[in-house]
Amino acid sequence: MDADKSLCGRDPASPYVELAVEVFSMLADATRLRIVLALRDGERSVNHLAEIVSKSPATVSQHLAKLRLARIVATRQDGTRIFYRLANEHASRLVADAIFQAEHAVSNVPAHHRGGV
């Protein structure tokens, strides 16, 4: 069991700890969290994301560029339009767990424990 822990980088001495801090840093922004949440169900254009997160397309585009550099989102081009999607399921799970932790801070029985997910 300990071998599995060190193989996947969950050991305290793991070289991935600093990279994980960078991921948390990249996600430490409300607009970026909202973008990740909006991308859980599939790819979206910048304009569609801007509508969902109530920000300008320029603002969303800047956040997406940072998320793309961090390899949290990936793109697909269709003509002149670019569509964004989550690069993998891990960012979505990180954000969901952060939301669940926030629910614990304000409720004795958070929604995710009542089946409200």
Write up what this structure looks like.
The structure is a single chain. 55% of the residues lie in helices and 12% in strands. By secondary structure, the protein is mostly helical. It has a single domain, classed as Winged helix-like DNA-binding domain superfamily/Winged helix DNA-binding domain (Arc Repressor Mutant, subunit A, Orthogonal Bundle). β2 and β3 form a beta hairpin. α4 packs across α5. The radius of gyration is 16 Å and the shape is globular. It starts with a helix and ends in an 11-residue tail after the last helix. The mean pLDDT is 90.
Q: How is this fold's topology laid out?
A:
Blueprint: H1 2-7, H2 17-27, H3 30-38, E1 44-45, H4 46-53, H5 57-69, E2 73-78, E3 81-86, H6 90-106
Antiparallel strand pairs: 1-3, 2-3
- Note the run of SSEs as H and E: HHHEHHEEH
Would you tell me the overall average pLDDT?
90
Our measurement of the CA-to-CA distance between the termini, rounded to an integer number of angstroms, reads 31 Å
Quaternary structure state of the chains depicted: single chain
Low-confidence stretches: none
Number of beta strands: 3
> How many structural domains in the coordinates?
1
CATH architecture: Orthogonal Bundle
- Strand order, main sheet: write it out: 1-3-2
Q: Give the overall silhouette.
A: globular
Proportion in helices:
40-55%
- CATH level-3 fold name: Arc Repressor Mutant, subunit A
CATH first level: which class? Answer: Mainly Alpha
